[in-house]
Amino acid sequence: MRDELPLEEALNKLNRQIMVINTLAAEINQSFDLEKILNYSLDKTIEIIGADFAGILLVSRDQTLIPKVLKGVPSEKVREIQEHRFTVHEGLDGEVILSKQPVIVEDLTKEVEKYKVKNIFESLQISSYLGVPILSLDKVWGMISMGSREKGYFTRRDAEFLSAIAHHIGIAVKSIRHHQREKELSILAKSQQLITSSLNLREVLTFIVDACAELMEVPACHIRLLNEDQELIFAAASGVYKDSLEEFRKLKIGESFSGWVVAHGEILMVPDAASDERNVHIHIAKKYGLKSFLGVPLKIREKVIGVLGVSTNQTRQFSEEEIQLVSNFANQAAIAIENARLFGESEKRRQEAEASRRDLETAMQLVRQSEDRFRNIYNAISSGIVVQDGEGKVIYANEAACKLLEQTLDQLQGKAPVDPGWHPIREDGSPLPFEEYPLMMALHTGKPVRNAVMGICSAKNEKPRWILGNCEPILDPDTGRVKEVVGSFIDITERKQAAEKLRQQNDYLTALHETTLALMNRLELHDLLEVIITRAGELLGTQHGYVHLLGSKGTEMIVGTGIYGQRIDYGVRPGKGLVGKIWQTGQPLVVNNYSTWPERLPDP
Among 107-116, 241-250, 325-334, whose mean pLDDT is lowest? Predict the structure, then answer.
């Protein structure tokens, strides 16, 4: 290992470490740019520790380690590492993830045979290794690994500093993923609303490819559908695809990437589209710098009708979360297409029935079939759908709506959607009057209600369930009055909870950052302890606190705030009272009601 540093140099290094940690904490507070945070963290860590190679890998839902940032690795090796499938159950990195502890290997050459990536270690001439887990609230989000050509290079202090960096990265990953999930839910909800309210299929599909490209952060996204000749043609495109449609041609089933997806009905991932022989548009991929491709089939009742594809401008291993997101958009596109088809069929049959008027029973049967199909579609939608007539009575509610409202369809039909056991509230916690329900507001005003949030408390759920609603009034063309109101609702309880957790986490980070700055500006022990106890009290919402230190006759209160400010120098013996019990056991102690605690000491 490296020799111990002189005192002054060690202090300078410690100060640099503290500055890096504080800067990282501040960046996390004000930025949702994960790539920027990861690159800054790794650059500064390499600068301080001095490793030859370093990387940050994040854990996907399928327990695969995805390389996100690599430093010091030759370009020809970067692709090999990115394409290698690492799992959390193997190798040194897997040991770090599973143990949730730092791992230091002083001499890799002695044990390289047992590691799955032996060829990578040897080609990079890595002799020593340091890996630490990225944790947040005991959940492993990924890991940081470092390598050196020098044997025994890494020290315990390196591991401690790297663990501090990893802790902040864990907070950032968790916060950013919560933010990303909120953004995904918002866009998916808007997409569902558009599907239920618009009959313009081109508008819906264009929104889907644009939204998919935005959330996936890719330069191109498209939807191809089978036409009557069983050829795949563009139905919607964004980015590069949209700007170069004339350069693409129709595809047969089984041809190129999209044709393969339709022929097999399976998801397809292509790491390098510009060199894959299946690609009939290689010249376009090279021209626009398109690298990896992900294609998801569009299905209606297991029948493949098309494909949704995205292309990246960098080589990319798609995670399970990304595949699921693209699949969600593909499902929405399929529902929109089926909606349009069913509406077209329904409209065509209605016109035929009106024109002939000779077989009313047949016409009624066709209408009922269409209604059944629409009902099946609405029941397949994850959003709750409720339809009211002009008097506020429920005409129809799908299964998701019944679940959200905790009532059956029989209980809802013919009545206003209320329950005597409900206690609806606004976002600020105040009661929500019946006339302010989103459905009732749309009914009474004749205007759409967008993104209305309400909480519902009931005997079954003490904590409120939060619902985001959009309501569209349908007017009678003759009278101009509201004939029906269609409302769509989604449960956003988890999103609200995630936002609250994020707010609390930001409060903790801010308090930690401010305390760190205060510690750096004070040298007196009494002042330092007073700052710490005051900050802790602010964070927990109390002004009463104290610090006991061990003296010659027991513990002695040297700092007190609030009601303890007059009890400085007060001391206790081991095992006596709160302080004595903590001193004796060496463990944290929580007492919810001190007035009835059996070991309470008499007031002085």
Answer: 107-116
One-letter amino acid at 150 equals E
How many whole angstroms separate alpha carbon 437 and alpha carbon 454?
8
Q: What is the largest CA-CA distance in the chain?
A: 107
Alpha-carbon distance of 535 to 152, in angstroms, equals 41
The Cβ-side half-sphere exposure at 472, using a 13 Å CA radius, reads 11
Contact 276, 290 (CB under 8 A): no
Q: For 551-565, what is each residue's pLDDT tens digit?
A: 766 777 778 888 877
- Residue 319 three-state SS: coil
* Average pLDDT for 14-33: 65
Tokens 């045979």 correspond to what residue? 113
Provide DSSP, 206-229: HHHHHHHHHHHT-SEEEEEEE-TT
Residue 307 has pLDDT above 90, yes or no: yes
Distance (Å, whole) CA 54 – CA 42: 7
Q: What separation in angstroms does the CA of 604 have from each of 326, 570, 598, 600?
A: 67, 9, 17, 12
23 vs 403: CA distance, rounded Å: 47
Given a contact cutoff of 8 angstroms between Cβ atoms, the answer to whether 241 and 222 are in contact is: yes
CA distance 590 to 577: 12
Provide the H-helix boundaries in 198-281.
Answer: 201-216, 240-243, 256-264
Within 8 A by CB and 6+ apart from 18, the residues are 516, 520
Would you tell me the crossing angle of helices 156-197 and 34-49 to the nearest 10 degrees? 170
3-class secondary structure, 307: strand
- Residue 448 parent element (H or E): none
Distance CA 42, CA 180 (A): 23
Which of 237-251, 367-381, 479-493 shows the lowest mean pLDDT across its residues?
Answer: 367-381
Gap between the Cα atoms of 398 and 403, Å rounded: 9
Q: Is the pLDDT of residue 85 over 80?
A: no
pLDDT in tens, 165-180: 888 888 877 777 766 6
* Contacts by residues 118-124 (CB-CB < 8 Å, ≥ 24 positions apart): 120/77, 120/80, 120/81, 120/84, 121/147, 123/77, 124/52, 124/53, 124/73, 124/77
What number of other Cβ atoms are within 10 A of residue 171's Cβ? 23
| Alpha-carbon distances of 458 from 423, 424, 426, 462, rounded to whole Å | 6, 9, 15, 6
Q: Tell me whether residue 173 is exposed, middle or buried, using C-beta atoms within 10 angstroms of its C-beta: 0 to 12, 13 to 18, 19 or more.
A: buried
Q: Is the pLDDT of residue 91 over 80?
A: no
Q: What b/e sequence results for 489-523 when a residue is b if at least 16 CB atoms lie within 10 Å of its CB, and e otherwise?
A: bbbbbebbebeeebeebeeebeebbebeebeeeee
**Alpha-carbon separation of residue 385 from 58, 399, 423, 464, 489 (angstroms):** 38, 8, 21, 20, 7
pLDDT at 368 over 60: no
The residue-averaged pLDDT of 353-359 equals 60
How far is Cα 151 from Cα 329, in angstroms, rounded to an integer?
Answer: 50
- Residue 75 burial (CB < 10 Å; 0-12/13-18/19+)? exposed
Residue among 168, 145, 118, 178 nearest 46 (CA): 145
Q: What pLDDT is attached to residue 459? A: 65
